[in-house]
Amino acid sequence: MAGIVLSSSVRTNLLTLQSTSDLIGRTQNRLATGMSVSSPIDSAVKYFASKSLSDRASDLSERKDGIDQGVSALETALEATSAMEELTQQMKGIIDAARSQTQSQRAEAGAQLAELAQQIQNLVDDASYKGLNLLNSSASTLSVRFSDKADSKLDINGVNFNAEAYFQDTAGASLGVSAFSGVQIACALGISAGLSVAAFSAATQLADFNAVADTAIKSLESTISNLRSKSATMAANASILKVRLDFTSEYVNKLQVGADKLSLANLNEEGANLVALQTRQQIGTQALAFAGQAEQSIMQLFR
Q1: How do residues 136-161 score in pLDDT, each as one tens digit?
Q2: Max Cα distance, the chain (Å)
Q3: Contact partners, residue 231, CB within 8 Å, separation at least 6
Q4: Backbone dihedral region for residue 100 (phi beyond 0: left; psi -120 to 50: alpha; all else: beta)
Q5: CA-based angle 278:44:148, to the nearest 5?
Q6: pLDDT tens-place string over residues 247-282
Q7: Structural element, H or E, at residue 140
Q8: What is the pTM of this model?
Q9: Which SS3 state, helix, strand or coil, does residue 254 take?
Protein backbone atom coordinates (compact mmCIF):
# COMPACT_ATOMS: atom_id res chain seq x y z
CA MET A 1 0.00 0.00 0.00
CA ALA A 2 1.46 3.33 -0.99
CA GLY A 3 2.05 5.94 1.71
CA ILE A 4 -0.05 9.02 2.08
CA VAL A 5 1.50 11.88 0.16
CA LEU A 6 1.16 15.36 1.54
CA SER A 7 1.83 18.48 -0.36
CA SER A 8 4.86 20.56 0.53
CA SER A 9 2.76 23.37 1.98
CA VAL A 10 0.70 20.98 4.15
CA ARG A 11 3.83 19.21 5.42
CA THR A 12 5.50 22.54 6.27
CA ASN A 13 2.45 23.70 8.19
CA LEU A 14 2.28 20.41 10.10
CA LEU A 15 5.93 20.65 11.12
CA THR A 16 5.42 24.22 12.26
CA LEU A 17 2.39 23.19 14.34
CA GLN A 18 4.35 20.34 15.94
CA SER A 19 7.20 22.71 16.82
CA THR A 20 4.75 25.22 18.26
CA SER A 21 3.05 22.47 20.27
CA ASP A 22 6.43 21.39 21.72
CA LEU A 23 7.24 24.98 22.69
CA ILE A 24 3.83 25.35 24.35
CA GLY A 25 4.47 22.17 26.32
CA ARG A 26 7.90 23.42 27.44
CA THR A 27 6.51 26.81 28.42
CA GLN A 28 3.65 25.26 30.37
CA ASN A 29 6.14 23.07 32.24
CA ARG A 30 8.25 26.12 33.14
CA LEU A 31 5.18 27.95 34.40
CA ALA A 32 4.11 24.90 36.43
CA THR A 33 7.53 24.21 37.99
CA GLY A 34 9.00 27.70 37.98
CA MET A 35 12.22 26.21 36.57
CA SER A 36 13.73 27.06 33.23
CA VAL A 37 16.49 24.49 33.73
CA SER A 38 15.38 21.39 35.61
CA SER A 39 17.58 18.74 33.98
CA PRO A 40 20.85 18.48 32.01
CA ILE A 41 18.73 18.13 28.85
CA ASP A 42 17.52 21.72 29.24
CA SER A 43 21.07 23.12 29.54
CA ALA A 44 23.94 20.98 30.78
CA VAL A 45 26.19 23.95 31.62
CA LYS A 46 23.54 25.86 33.56
CA TYR A 47 22.18 22.72 35.24
CA PHE A 48 25.52 21.56 36.65
CA ALA A 49 26.62 25.09 37.59
CA SER A 50 23.35 25.61 39.44
CA LYS A 51 23.61 22.19 41.11
CA SER A 52 27.15 22.93 42.27
CA LEU A 53 26.00 26.17 43.91
CA SER A 54 22.97 24.47 45.48
CA ASP A 55 25.08 21.60 46.83
CA ARG A 56 27.52 24.09 48.36
CA ALA A 57 24.63 26.00 49.92
CA SER A 58 23.21 22.75 51.33
CA ASP A 59 26.56 21.74 52.85
CA LEU A 60 27.02 25.14 54.47
CA SER A 61 23.45 25.09 55.78
CA GLU A 62 24.37 21.99 57.77
CA ARG A 63 27.44 23.82 59.12
CA LYS A 64 25.22 26.77 59.97
CA ASP A 65 23.01 24.52 62.06
CA GLY A 66 26.11 23.25 63.86
CA ILE A 67 27.29 26.80 64.54
CA ASP A 68 23.85 27.72 65.85
CA GLN A 69 23.95 24.73 68.21
CA GLY A 70 27.41 25.84 69.37
CA VAL A 71 26.02 29.27 70.22
CA SER A 72 23.24 27.63 72.22
CA ALA A 73 25.74 25.45 74.09
CA LEU A 74 27.77 28.52 75.07
CA GLU A 75 24.67 30.49 76.00
CA THR A 76 23.64 27.63 78.29
CA ALA A 77 27.02 27.74 80.02
CA LEU A 78 26.88 31.55 80.29
CA GLU A 79 23.41 31.44 81.83
CA ALA A 80 24.72 28.98 84.42
CA THR A 81 27.77 31.15 85.24
CA SER A 82 25.49 34.16 85.67
CA ALA A 83 23.39 32.22 88.18
CA MET A 84 26.54 30.95 89.92
CA GLU A 85 27.80 34.50 90.36
CA GLU A 86 24.47 35.53 91.86
CA LEU A 87 24.61 32.67 94.38
CA THR A 88 28.24 33.47 95.22
CA GLN A 89 27.30 37.09 95.83
CA GLN A 90 24.65 35.83 98.25
CA MET A 91 27.35 33.87 100.10
CA LYS A 92 29.32 37.08 100.49
CA GLY A 93 26.23 38.77 101.90
CA ILE A 94 25.66 36.00 104.43
CA ILE A 95 29.22 36.19 105.74
CA ASP A 96 29.09 39.97 105.89
CA ALA A 97 25.78 39.92 107.75
CA ALA A 98 27.15 37.43 110.28
CA ARG A 99 29.21 40.20 111.88
CA SER A 100 26.10 41.66 113.54
CA GLN A 101 24.06 38.48 114.11
CA THR A 102 23.44 36.45 117.22
CA GLN A 103 25.00 33.03 117.63
CA SER A 104 21.73 31.25 116.70
CA GLN A 105 21.30 33.45 113.65
CA ARG A 106 24.81 32.60 112.52
CA ALA A 107 24.03 28.93 112.93
CA GLU A 108 21.15 29.37 110.47
CA ALA A 109 23.39 31.43 108.18
CA GLY A 110 25.93 28.59 108.14
CA ALA A 111 23.25 26.22 106.84
CA GLN A 112 22.34 28.76 104.15
CA LEU A 113 25.99 29.01 103.20
CA ALA A 114 26.12 25.26 102.69
CA GLU A 115 22.86 25.27 100.70
CA LEU A 116 24.14 28.00 98.37
CA ALA A 117 27.36 26.08 97.75
CA GLN A 118 25.32 22.96 97.01
CA GLN A 119 23.12 24.89 94.56
CA ILE A 120 26.23 26.19 92.77
CA GLN A 121 27.37 22.59 92.33
CA ASN A 122 23.88 21.65 91.10
CA LEU A 123 24.07 24.42 88.50
CA VAL A 124 27.39 23.07 87.27
CA ASP A 125 25.96 19.56 87.06
CA ASP A 126 22.85 20.73 85.21
CA ALA A 127 24.59 22.97 82.64
CA SER A 128 24.73 20.28 79.95
CA TYR A 129 23.66 20.93 76.38
CA LYS A 130 23.20 17.91 74.14
CA GLY A 131 25.38 15.87 76.46
CA LEU A 132 28.24 18.38 76.60
CA ASN A 133 28.98 20.18 79.87
CA LEU A 134 31.48 23.03 79.52
CA LEU A 135 31.51 23.78 83.25
CA ASN A 136 32.30 20.49 84.94
CA SER A 137 35.61 19.58 83.29
CA SER A 138 38.52 21.33 81.64
CA ALA A 139 38.73 18.27 79.35
CA SER A 140 35.37 19.09 77.76
CA THR A 141 35.75 20.60 74.30
CA LEU A 142 33.19 22.14 72.01
CA SER A 143 34.44 21.94 68.43
CA VAL A 144 32.46 23.95 65.88
CA ARG A 145 33.30 23.56 62.20
CA PHE A 146 32.61 26.40 59.80
CA SER A 147 33.18 24.71 56.44
CA ASP A 148 34.60 21.60 54.81
CA LYS A 149 38.14 22.84 55.42
CA ALA A 150 39.80 21.03 58.32
CA ASP A 151 41.25 24.17 59.89
CA SER A 152 38.12 26.27 59.54
CA LYS A 153 36.73 25.67 63.02
CA LEU A 154 36.73 26.92 66.59
CA ASP A 155 37.62 24.71 69.55
CA ILE A 156 36.25 25.90 72.88
CA ASN A 157 37.70 24.34 76.02
CA GLY A 158 35.52 23.73 79.06
CA VAL A 159 36.41 24.77 82.62
CA ASN A 160 36.27 22.92 85.90
CA PHE A 161 33.80 24.73 88.14
CA ASN A 162 33.11 21.79 90.42
CA ALA A 163 33.17 22.87 94.07
CA GLU A 164 36.70 21.62 94.73
CA ALA A 165 38.04 23.86 91.95
CA TYR A 166 35.46 26.67 91.91
CA PHE A 167 36.05 28.28 95.30
CA GLN A 168 39.38 30.12 95.46
CA ASP A 169 41.49 31.75 98.14
CA THR A 170 42.66 35.35 97.96
CA ALA A 171 45.66 34.28 95.88
CA GLY A 172 43.53 32.53 93.29
CA ALA A 173 44.34 28.96 94.35
CA SER A 174 41.58 26.39 94.63
CA LEU A 175 40.26 25.82 98.15
CA GLY A 176 39.46 22.18 97.50
CA VAL A 177 35.94 22.24 98.95
CA SER A 178 34.79 18.62 99.06
CA ALA A 179 31.69 18.78 101.23
CA PHE A 180 28.78 21.16 101.58
CA SER A 181 28.15 21.45 105.31
CA GLY A 182 28.09 24.95 106.77
CA VAL A 183 31.22 24.26 108.79
CA GLN A 184 33.06 22.79 105.79
CA ILE A 185 32.29 25.77 103.60
CA ALA A 186 33.16 28.29 106.32
CA CYS A 187 36.38 26.46 107.13
CA ALA A 188 37.34 26.33 103.48
CA LEU A 189 36.84 30.09 103.33
CA GLY A 190 39.06 30.61 106.38
CA ILE A 191 36.44 30.76 109.17
CA SER A 192 37.91 27.77 110.93
CA ALA A 193 35.34 27.47 113.73
CA GLY A 194 32.33 27.99 111.52
CA LEU A 195 29.86 30.87 111.68
CA SER A 196 27.98 29.70 114.75
CA VAL A 197 30.83 28.93 117.15
CA ALA A 198 32.16 32.39 117.85
CA ALA A 199 30.30 34.03 120.76
CA PHE A 200 31.47 37.61 120.25
CA SER A 201 31.27 38.15 124.02
CA ALA A 202 34.46 40.14 123.86
CA ALA A 203 35.49 42.84 121.47
CA THR A 204 38.61 40.88 120.58
CA GLN A 205 36.47 37.92 119.45
CA LEU A 206 34.44 40.15 117.16
CA ALA A 207 37.63 41.73 115.85
CA ASP A 208 39.07 38.29 115.16
CA PHE A 209 35.87 37.22 113.40
CA ASN A 210 35.84 40.40 111.31
CA ALA A 211 39.37 39.64 110.18
CA VAL A 212 38.55 36.12 109.00
CA ALA A 213 35.23 37.29 107.53
CA ASP A 214 37.13 39.86 105.49
CA THR A 215 39.42 37.10 104.26
CA ALA A 216 36.44 34.88 103.41
CA ILE A 217 34.77 37.67 101.46
CA LYS A 218 38.01 38.37 99.59
CA SER A 219 38.18 34.66 98.75
CA LEU A 220 34.67 34.79 97.35
CA GLU A 221 35.56 37.94 95.40
CA SER A 222 38.57 36.10 93.97
CA THR A 223 36.19 33.25 93.08
CA ILE A 224 33.83 35.66 91.36
CA SER A 225 36.71 37.32 89.51
CA ASN A 226 37.83 33.95 88.15
CA LEU A 227 34.23 33.11 87.23
CA ARG A 228 33.88 36.41 85.33
CA SER A 229 37.17 35.85 83.56
CA LYS A 230 36.11 32.42 82.30
CA SER A 231 32.65 33.74 81.42
CA ALA A 232 34.20 36.57 79.40
CA THR A 233 36.19 34.04 77.39
CA MET A 234 33.03 32.03 76.71
CA ALA A 235 31.16 35.20 75.75
CA ALA A 236 33.95 36.16 73.32
CA ASN A 237 33.75 32.71 71.74
CA ALA A 238 29.96 33.00 71.52
CA SER A 239 30.42 36.33 69.77
CA ILE A 240 32.79 34.71 67.26
CA LEU A 241 30.24 31.99 66.57
CA LYS A 242 27.48 34.54 66.05
CA VAL A 243 29.63 36.43 63.55
CA ARG A 244 30.29 33.19 61.68
CA LEU A 245 26.60 32.30 61.89
CA ASP A 246 25.60 35.61 60.28
CA PHE A 247 28.32 35.26 57.62
CA THR A 248 27.31 31.69 56.80
CA SER A 249 23.64 32.68 56.55
CA GLU A 250 24.49 35.44 54.08
CA TYR A 251 26.86 33.16 52.18
CA VAL A 252 24.24 30.42 51.83
CA ASN A 253 21.75 33.01 50.63
CA LYS A 254 24.17 34.32 47.99
CA LEU A 255 24.87 30.79 46.75
CA GLN A 256 21.17 29.99 46.50
CA VAL A 257 20.45 33.25 44.69
CA GLY A 258 23.24 32.43 42.22
CA ALA A 259 21.79 28.96 41.64
CA ASP A 260 18.31 30.40 41.14
CA LYS A 261 19.58 32.86 38.56
CA LEU A 262 20.76 29.91 36.48
CA SER A 263 17.72 27.69 36.87
CA LEU A 264 14.61 29.68 37.72
CA ALA A 265 12.17 30.73 35.01
CA ASN A 266 11.04 34.29 34.43
CA LEU A 267 7.32 33.71 34.93
CA ASN A 268 6.27 37.01 33.35
CA GLU A 269 8.33 36.23 30.27
CA GLU A 270 7.07 32.65 30.10
CA GLY A 271 3.48 33.83 30.45
CA ALA A 272 3.94 36.21 27.51
CA ASN A 273 5.60 33.41 25.54
CA LEU A 274 2.62 31.13 26.16
CA VAL A 275 0.14 33.73 24.85
CA ALA A 276 2.30 34.30 21.74
CA LEU A 277 2.67 30.55 21.11
CA GLN A 278 -1.06 29.92 21.47
CA THR A 279 -1.69 32.70 18.96
CA ARG A 280 0.88 31.19 16.61
CA GLN A 281 -0.77 27.79 17.01
CA GLN A 282 -4.17 29.22 16.02
CA ILE A 283 -2.66 30.95 12.99
CA GLY A 284 -0.82 27.76 12.02
CA THR A 285 -4.05 25.76 12.23
CA GLN A 286 -5.73 28.30 9.96
CA ALA A 287 -2.79 28.18 7.52
CA LEU A 288 -3.04 24.38 7.41
CA ALA A 289 -6.71 24.73 6.56
CA PHE A 290 -5.86 27.10 3.69
CA ALA A 291 -3.25 24.63 2.36
CA GLY A 292 -5.84 21.83 2.47
CA GLN A 293 -8.30 23.90 0.46
CA ALA A 294 -5.93 23.74 -2.57
CA GLU A 295 -6.13 19.95 -2.60
CA GLN A 296 -9.88 19.97 -2.00
CA SER A 297 -10.30 21.99 -5.24
CA ILE A 298 -9.37 18.81 -7.18
CA MET A 299 -12.61 17.25 -5.91
CA GLN A 300 -14.50 19.79 -8.00
CA LEU A 301 -13.29 17.95 -11.14
CA PHE A 302 -15.19 14.81 -10.05
CA ARG A 303 -18.52 16.54 -9.47
Answers
A1: 999 999 999 998 888 899 999 999 99
A2: 145
A3: 78, 81, 82, 85
A4: alpha
A5: 130
A6: 999 999 999 999 999 999 999 999 999 999 999 999
A7: none
A8: 0.78
A9: helix
